[in-house]
Amino acid sequence: MNTLGKSVKRAYVLLFARRIFYPANLFLYKLSLFGLGLRNYENDTVSGEKAFIRFLKALKKFDSGAILDIGANVGNYSVMLRKNGINLPIYAFEPHPVAFRKLSEAAIAHNFIAVPEGAGEESSMAAIYDYQGDGGSEHASMYKGVIEHLHKGKAEEVAIALTTIDEFVARYDIRKIALLKIDTEGHELSVLKGAKQTIASGIAEVIQVEFNEMNIISRTFFKDIVDILPGYDFYRMLPDGLKALGPYNSTNYEIFSFQNIVALKKSIN
Q: Same domain, yes or no, for 244 and 148?
């Protein structure tokens, strides 16, 4: 912090770091999160995803390769890509059988490939948790606490199959991944651990990861994701484009609230 910043902080603390102003400070803090690109999930414009797709199109990143949509649920993201004129092969992964049926319908309507598997650190049978009697929700997670502790619901266990990104890439002989999008309700780090060879090979140029309060349940720090992607620079989505996060700093990175993070290979910046 420079001299001016220290002076402003000192004055602010003396004037406003008081119990009477605590509610106002808390309100301003929560309001500022929206301005930092957090908790903006209402639509593709507010979340920054629409601007992000325009950015990748301008860089011609959608001219070749494949797109992997991990945690596709009913396919909204893949459909959004098609509606924005992206014609690359899209593999949309969804292991929950109820959500997968709806994803399959969207895949037929919008010409992408629905994959009835989840992705993780290794191929195996596993369990996913969703609301009891309301299968296929967007909150379905590998972590029971996401449903029961964060969302205060009653969890129901569903058996699913997991593959790894590395195995899938080898199975389909994918030579380039234009976009690897991961939205797995706290399971993102495990997905990346199952993509170590893919990441090391350099074929995944752009990775989009959702980071939020589910990562508290999975005990994943943002630093874990930074460490597994050493050849990437990190950005946060804003409605008008990407904002570079710069070198890792816990204050800027470790915010456990909905946000879309983009990792770009350093060679493409």
A: yes
